[in-house]
Amino acid sequence: MTRQLSQGAGTAGNPRSAELYARACRVIPGGVSSPVRAFRAVGGTPLFIARGSGAQVVDADGRSYLDFVGSWGPLILGHAHPAVVAAVSEALARGTTFGAPCEAEVQLAERVVAAYPATEQVRFVSSGTEAVMSAIRVARAFTARDLIVKFAGCYHGHADHLLVAAGSGLATLGRPSSAGVPQAFTACTRVLPLDDEAAALELFEREGERIAAVIIEPVPANHGLLPQRPEFLSRLRQLTSQHGALLIFDEVISGFRLGQGGAAQRLGIAPDLATFGKVIGGGMPVGAFGGARRIMARLAPDGDTYQAGTLSGNPVAMAAGLATLEVLMRESGWERLESRGAELEQLLQAVLADSHLPVQLVRVGSLFWLSFHEAGAPRSALSLTPRESARFAALFHALLERGIYLPPSAYEACFLSLAHSSVELTRFAQALREALATVP
Question: 195, 278, 405, 411: which one is catalytic?
Fold first, then answer.
């Protein structure tokens, strides 16, 4: 039974989390190993999670929450799914790592290749950042060009050449958006606005012969959830093909979440390269990138493009990914997730329609986002005003008090899993109705 909270996280109601955070701040920068976990966008002290089961997590103080973070996407079956726990346990009993090929690595690669459009080969790494770094290196080698095009609002990991912000123009030279990144590292990166065919056309007309690749989240989910028009993505496919550049879909979030073939299958657009993570790791650190054999052939040891990783293809992580995909296939997982998403949308639309706040629900499959933009949910990256950010922070804590755990940032998408039942979706809708009424 979920215990209802009397106080928000970061108050006297979470003394153990507060104690752990104070200790962490002495030995870990900011007290966290990834910035968004620090609750800086919403205020208060971050929750330290002790365990999870199904759709629930339990914090260090013993309080339970209905979880819509899902470790930021990989837990598509829910926490501690029995099939994944069993597969990991069996793999652990055989050894944690070998630094050598293993059968599960081949099996998972076969699953990815069979499922994802136009992918003939795949290589495993340990994170989405590694996957993107490697895909871009291969694209540059294959095309013998240097320029990379990304889109404002799309996050592709923390590699130096992709930590750039869009300027005020339609297409700008990359400018580092993090200290420690020399401008020279981003000089070969161009940034475009989402949902703008004219800007993309103008850039290709000007620099098309120098562009190695265009990389985009086909369903951008790191600056809010920003579904793109199929016409826009089709135009990118056309422009890259016309100018001899490669199209890279970053499906670290959307891959194997929106369906077996990810967003590419859903949209009917096949990229030249794709990157994966999250779901294919089943909760373990896994990333991958793949594409046509003629492109992937550039990788060492066959080709001249170097990429390596001691823990790549780790047998325990491969077992977790395989078990996750097997459950999804056996139990019609993607169809069920789409149904759950539609059910949640119906429940929340009624709640939001009655609210005094201008909050919009954006949903793509089992991904959803509550947009606090007063002008309406955007399709391109727009910053929230201080007032809008404050409203989200108030809602976040009001929901925590009611046992609902959302991502601690107004820009982060939420995740459904197969563990979220109709009962839990209804509970969320009721908690949201109550919480919204407390937000000024």
Answer: 278
Tokens standing for 18? 């507060």
Annotated active-site residue in 250, 272, 405, 411: 250
278 is catalytic: yes
Nearest to 17, CA basis, from 40, 55, 44, 48? 48
Task: List pLDDT tens digits, range 75-117.
Answer: 999 999 999 999 999 999 999 999 999 999 999 999 999 999 9
Please report, to the nearest 10 degrees, the dihedral formed by the alpha carbons of residues 8, 10, 12, 16 taken in order.
Answer: 120
Instruction: Output the six-digit token pair for 405.
Output: 């755990």
Residue 59 annotated among the catalytic residues of the structure: no
116 is catalytic: no
What is the pTM (predicted TM-score) of this model? 0.94
What is the distance between the alpha carbons of residues 406 and 30, in angstroms, rounded to a whole number?
A: 21
- For the segment 285-324, what is each residue's pLDDT rounded down to a tens digit? 999 999 999 999 999 999 999 999 999 999 999 999 999 9
